[in-house]
Amino acid sequence: MGQDPTKPALPWNKTRVSSRLGIEYPIIQGPLGGVPTQQLTAAVSNFGGLGSFGAHGWSPSAIKDVIAEIRALTSKPFAMNLWVSMEDEGAFTSSREAFARSLAPLAGHIHALGGTLPAYRPYVATKFEDQARVLLDAKVPVFSFIYGIPPKEILDECRAQGILIIGSATTPDEAVVLEQAGVDVIAASGFEAGGHRGSFLRPAEESLTGTFSLVPQVADAVSVPVVAAGGIADARGIVAAFALGAEGAQLGTAFLACEVSGANARHRDAILNGGARRTALTKGFTGRLARGIDNRLLEELNRPGVEILPYPLQRTLVRGLAIPAEKAAKTDLLPLWAGQSANLSRQSDVKTLFEALVSEVSAIAGPVLRWSRDESGK
Ligand SMILES: Cc1cc2nc3c(=O)[nH]c(=O)nc-3n(C[C@H](O)[C@H](O)[C@H](O)COP(=O)(O)O)c2cc1C
Predict the structure, then answer these.
(1) Given the CA of residue 34, which atom of ligand 1 is nearest to it?
(2) Pocket test for ligand 1, best of 27, 29, 32 (most atoms within 8 A of CB)
(3) How much is the pTM?
(4) What is the pLDDT of residues 162-180, one digit of tens each?
(5) What's the rounded Cα separation, in Å, for the pair 230 and 99?
(6) 323-336: per-residue pLDDT in tens?
(7) DSSP state at residue 373
(8) What is the mean pLDDT of the chain?
């Protein structure tokens, strides 16, 4: 459970997370579903961290290509990330009428920007199992996931293939069931985090624990190593996470601001230049609760009475506005994902960011971490 004063001091980077994942520094670039790039994933892995690729929106054949492309860019471990739950139940039954009602608050903006209104189409599912099959066949180094726990056969096959497993918890209870399922590492995701709340035991709205509270509770509840995610954007955050019992830190928004991320230039600029001082949670961007910059679009979609389609149908709808809004540089009408610490982001170059994190954590922490369960030196 984190640090133990009776244990010898070790370099801060020698934790069970770094030894289990086979990486030099226990710093994870969190999966950035929707805006992932092979270049960012590989770059972070090449610098000695763990790059992740958020592949949940991709077809199995596209995922296969992505894995090959990442492998061409790095020989180091990297993670492929999927969503265990791919849609809300209502996605299969949502009607044309509901689509029209949810389009109404966006239609005026789309017209004003000269865009094309998205058309209703019944939902066609991509199956998690088919995506996972590709990861298993390709024997990716690390399989990470949110929104639940994959079927036992998939996890068994991961273990048989030597694929390391990272599950994501938003509450201590979720961490406990992930440990029971046999994951190797748990990412504890506090509600400061940018992007979606991957809760799966209770509704996301009832699972809004902050990182500072969540991490020590998860570290106490499980014996597998914990990675802290949510609101960490610089070395101070990483050291604080370690003090709370984490053995690794996962950053999303800070990496989103880098040029090699898939975020558009306006999104990156907002994070780096003060446009992300206020963030908020909304279901309005996709249908599932997620954190983004509190702009006009978010506020309008959060208004009482606005009908939001089930995930992922709302995502399609909002994309219909995002395309013309981006062309017209209407940042206030774009879904701009960001965590609460976005405003601490300073670097647009991934190498500079990663090296600054490592050197600043080393300067603050030094060899002061005393792990109660270390696997270092193996
Ligand atoms: C744009 C965006 C997309 C994300 N997509 C995923 C995803 O597909 N899977 C996942 O496990 N986490 C996802 N996350 C969460 C991040 O991997 C990371 O845990 C989180 O951003 C950490 O909090 P921070 O934003 O405060 O750094 C996403 C975050 C952002 C900002």
Answers:
(1) 3
(2) 32
(3) 0.96
(4) 999 999 999 999 999 999 9
(5) 33
(6) 999 999 999 999 99
(7) S
(8) 95
The closest alpha carbon to 228, from 205, 209, 204, 207, belongs to 209
| SS3 category, 316 | helix
Task: Please answer whether residues 233 and 279 qualify as being in contact, where contact means their C-beta atoms are separated by less than 8 angstroms.
Answer: no
* CA triple 51-52-55, angle to 5 deg: 155
The closest-lying atom of ligand 1 relative to the alpha carbon of residue 231 is: 26
Residue 181: Cβ within 10 Å count: 15
Domains and CATH numbers, the chain: 16-86+126-272+345-365 (3.20.20.70)
Would you say residue 372 has pLDDT above 60?
no
338 C-alpha to ligand 1 centroid (Å): 9
Average pLDDT over residues 303-319: 97
Which ligand 1 atom sits closest to the C-alpha of 254? 27
Measured from CB, residues less than 6 Å from any atom of ligand 1 are: 30-35, 54, 56, 81, 146, 168, 189, 192-195, 198, 229-232, 250-254, 256, 337, 339, 341
- Among all chains, which residue has been given the structure tokens 């490592």? 358
Residue 226 CA, ligand 1 centroid: distance in Å = 16
What is the best residue among 29, 196, 227, 345 to mutate for testing ligand 1's pocket, by most ligand atoms within 8 Å of CB? 196
Give me ligand 1 centre to Cα 7, in Å.
33
Q: What's the pLDDT score for residue 250?
A: 98
Greater pLDDT, 367 or 253:
253
